[in-house]
Amino acid sequence: MSISEDGLRKNQANFASLSPLSFLERTRKTFPNQIAIEYKEYKLSYKQAGQRCDALANLIKNQKFNSGSTIAVMLPNIPVMWECHFGIPMAIGVLNAINTRLDSNTVQFILEHGEAKLFIYDSEYGPIVEQALEKIDNPPTLIEFVDEVAGNKRSKFANKVNCLDYESEIKKFIGTQFEHILPNDEWNSIALNYTSGTTGNPKGVVYHHRGAYLNAIGNSLTWDLPMHPKYLWTLPMFHCNGWCFPWTITERAGTHVCLRQPAGELIVEAFQKHNVTHLCGAPIVMQMVADHLLQNNITLKNDIKMMTAGAPPPEAVLSKMASCGIEVIHVYGLTEIYGPAVVCAWHPEWNGLDASEQAKLKARQGVVYSVQENMKIIDTETNQEVPKDGITLGEVLVKGNITMKGYFKNKKATDEAFQGGWFHTGDLGVWYEDGYIQLKDRSKDIIISGGENISSIEVEDAIYKHPDVVAVAVVAKEDEKWGETPCAFIELSEGSTVSEIDLKDHCKSLLAGFKVPRYFSFTDLPKTSTGKIQKFKLREQTKLI
Description:
Layout lengths: L20 H10 L4 E5 L2 E4 H17 L7 E5 L4 H12 L3 E4 L6 H10 L2 E7 L3 H8 L7 E5 L10 H5 L3 E2 H6 L17 E6 L9 E5 H15 L6 E4 L6 H4 L1 H7 L3 E4 L5 H11 L3 E4 L1 H13 L8 E5 L6 H9 L2 E9 L4 E5 L11 H8 L4 E2 L5 E5 L15 E6 L6 E2 L3 H7 L5 E9 L5 E6 L4 E3 L2 E3 L1 H9 L4 E11 L3 E10 L7 H9 L10 E4 L12 H7 L4
Parallel strand pairs: 1-11, 3-4, 3-5, 5-6, 6-7, 10-11, 10-12, 12-13, 13-14, 25-26
Antiparallel strand pairs: 1-2, 8-9, 9-19, 14-15, 15-16, 17-18, 18-20, 20-21, 22-23, 24-25
Helix pairs in contact: 1-2, 1-10, 2-3, 4-5, 8-10, 11-12, 12-13, 13-14
């Protein structure tokens, strides 16, 4: 032991567990009158919002669940969803936020696998909840929330079963004292998030208080987030706990502007009504916003910044956002690393480049967050790092404090994911000389045609450059001669008369011949609630083309 350690130990005076719960405590004391929540005409100060979180925590504790019990919620981006991000862990519960667009079978699986003791859901989802609970032998205690701001009513299902009413129960505890105690161990679980489960049952990803705290701080540092931002909730709060932004914005004493249903028109209306300064979302959200602004000749009243993730943003869409006056920062992550953990950190000297060169640089995923430890790209056959040449493809690996604890009740999957002391993302990318990475595909999305690898992202970027293309997804279609060949699914702007021949000619001007899709399908693309295109569904559709 070194002399600097001799006799010096952690104690209550010099050590506290890191937890995002501390953010609310500080903000409600320091800025009690600052507006915490705006939802249409509904507003709450941090003093009022904090009291509601206290009430929720007391409500849960009154149910006498064991410490660490799973509390499931199925709610849209409304104030109650924000309350759950604080009230549930305050009561030493583990928050399990469920995707609101899931089918009843998947909701059933999550409730059973996660061993939910309490289930808080929005009345709109009553029919799905009813179907999900039909086959559960020991259902959780049910609490239904009725969103009166949206004009909703209590569900028929709630009237048939012994289901509590959220507002009625909360009112019983408003003003009741709640003892605020941080977890005794920052490794304690704070949230359980289930992956998309496109190839089987979803896996439960477990977050700890330390990681949630650090990623919330990392978001603030990465974005240079000022105090008191007005943040618009277009990113679902169920998705990686809203990438940890319920906690980030609260630490900044910002205003959470809630939006129950995101759409281009509604987002732009919220921009103007609430003087929004920041938002997050997938590239498809950028496309919706930019198209609505440009098509309606709307000029924004104030500067807006957007953080995008979920898929590599097409250069064409980034250029559109720049023309609308919205500054975009590009991050990369997965559910397993608390959402964003890699950022395309911007260099001042890049400001002098033309717009197309800036867009190319901004399309790269970048370098790790300052709160994450390390990242590398390896050859999956040799496990050796690939050269930083911007060409050689390999798998992206990360490690550090904002990596999940592991998969819930799935040791095999956890061990596989953490092989060699790194988290294996399953994403394929290249490494540049400056240390920045760029994704080329998910390992399952790479198209191998005649022995040559084709990046679906590269082909999509080329197609996005056509002015009539609203959205595109490129997947592999089986081919007798080449093994696989690119197949493009396209959404066109309203009234467009662009043909398959037009798009092929467009692609030929930008891509090598073997990369040009042989098949084009004009259709509405299937998307998740976070805006991600569901390529697994499109791969099935290729069998019909």
